[in-house]
Structures are given as structure tokens and as C-alpha cells.
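Worked example 3. Consider a protein that binds S-adenosylmethionine.
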Amino acid sequence: MEMMLENDWGEFEKGMDLSRGMYVQSIAHISKSMKRNLSMNNHDYSALKPFLRWAGGKSKLVKTLVDFVPPSNSYDRYFEPFVGAGALFFHIGPSKAVLSDLNTDLINCYQQVAKHPEGVWNLLQVHREFNNKEYYYHIRSQKPEKLKPIEQAARFIYLNKAAFNGIYRVNRQGVFNVPYGPSFKGPALPKKSLIEAASGLLKRVNLLAADYQEVCESAKRDDFIYLDPPYPPTNGTAYFTHYTADRFNWDDQREVSKVFQNLDRRGCLVMMSNSDRKEIRSMFQGYYMQQLNVTRWIGSNGDRFKAHEIIVTNYNPSEFRNGD
Ligand SMILES: C[S@@+](CC[C@H](N)C(=O)[O-])C[C@H]1O[C@@H](n2cnc3c(N)ncnc32)[C@H](O)[C@@H]1O
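Given these inputs, the predicted complex is written out as C-alpha cells:
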């Protein structure tokens, strides 16, 4: 499906007829049954919310994003290799999924919630009870590697909720360095029912702490891959977020576009969300692109500006949305 007509779904919706022959040719690798299923739009959502807050997280966008996701019976496995708080995953609740992220503390947290929801929740109650500024800095100063995996998970959730703005940011040594932030009400720790429901979904998932490229290598024909990489730097070198000690630069964005093309060639269904920047558009020329009607402020201090989001797919979402 590589290099097909450049187009815009908005134009489809307005009734502009993109060369149908070209489109059909471009989806030659999608099997007949998959094409048929694309028109059935039969999502059976779990509609769970993430139990973590995450910079760049898609919670607020999720209801828009699902319109671009193929129906669940049109793909085999759901892959989310930049999972973060997993807003789309928890909303959809796919039955077969591979979730991964480079952030090992995050993946350990999911593994522990999957295996020991009750234990994690009990430890969260201790954090809830003792929470104050001093306690936060004491917990923040702990070396996670000296704690049991389940304690690491509860610490991770507590810091995530008690940190200023819920941001997960590490310095170049990989040490979490966000100051204390909650209001007088204290951190909004997840309810037991949410931890239990998330555990139910995560139990059936393959969870990996790994680079997205390695994980995408294992995707096969008819798998669906949702790529939500960190946003590009706002100007030359300034970054919006620091999820890991390594920064995600423009070369990394170019690498994402190569991985996208490889997955496309392999016969996967691929969707990416990113900042709507001209550099990103030029990397994905020939694929379906849609600007979303949402803006967010990015950057800090003097260079804050409004950015739109873009969705890129290697299939035509309106094909299954309209059921034609
Ligand atoms: C924009 S966030 C994803 C947000 C997520 N979709 C959500 O709803 O919360 C990007 C994620 O990519 C992860 N990441 C950064 N570099 C990575 C890499 N090379 N491989 C895998 N994950 C990476 C970060 O840790 C972060 O969680």
C-alpha cells in the first residue's frame, strides 16, 4: 500500500472520488475476508480508562481515534509498541494484544497489576494513608531496583499520581525527577475496581519492555499496529517530554516512518498518531492522512505553540466507517 495517491480523508467525506482503481490496487495485500470485515465495524469496547496519567496520553482523544481503528474482526493481534498509559488499548480491550514500551518501570507496573491486582492495591492504600510532601520525596528517593517488583509497581502508580501534572520525566541518568504536585485533596489514586478491570485485560496481553522496532519485527500479516511515538522536538532540540533517558529526535521520527512502511509491506494494518508538522507529512507521503480537530499546547516558556494532531493509516478508514 506504499506510495498510493496522496489524499485527505476530509475530501473523501465531502464526496470527492479518489481513484477507486488505484485504491483497490493499493490494498491488494489485504485479503478478501479482511476487506469484507472492514465494512462491519463491530467494535465491542471495554471502554476502560487508563489508571495512569501520561504526557502525550490519548485519553481525551480516544473517542476520535477509535473511528480510525479497523473493526476487531479485521485483524488478528493488536500491537501498541509505544503504549504509555494505553488509552486506546484500554478503550478497545482487544482479546489478543502485544503491548510494549521502552520504559521498563511502566511495563513492570502493568505486569504486576496483571498478576497481583489486590497486592498492588493494598500497597497503594499505604501510600494513600501516608501521603504528604515529605513522604513523596522519601518514596521518590528510593532506588526502585532495591524494591520487590510489586512494590516498584505501587511506587510507580503513586509517583505518577502525586507528581506535578502527573508527568513522567527522567533525567539523562534515567532517574525520575518530577516535584510533588497534588492539591490539598491528595493524589487521585485509582479505585480498586479500575485496577481489577485493568488486570483482567492485561492478563491476556503479551507485555514487553523493549524498543518498538524490535517488537514491530514480530508483527505478522493481518496484525493491527498502532504507533504513537513521542512528539518531535518543538524547535531544533527542545522536547515536550522525557519518558526515557534517551530522547526521541528527528532521525527517530524518520525511523518510525521506515518501520511503518515495512509493516505495510508485510500486510499489517498500521495507524500512527503524531503532531501535524510538515516534516511528518512529508515522511508519510502516499498514505492516508487526517488532521484531527484537536489542538494542544506544546513547548515551554517562550516557544509554546498550538499543534494539531494527525492520524496516518495505510488503509482507508472511511471504507469501513461508511460500510461501503
Ligand atoms: C506519546 S507516548 C504514548 C502515549 C500513549 N499512547 C497513551 O495513550 O498514553 C510515547 C511512549 O513511547 C515510549 N518510547 C519512547 N521511545 C521508545 C522506543 N524507542 N521504543 C518504545 N517505546 C518508546 C515512551 O516511554 C512513551 O511511553
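Take a moment to read the result before moving on. Residues 54, 56-58, 81-82, 84-87, 101-103, 211-212, 228-230, 243-244, 248 surround S-adenosylmethionine (CB under 6 Å). Residues 7-102+210-321 form a domain with the Rossmann fold fold (CATH 3.40.50.150).
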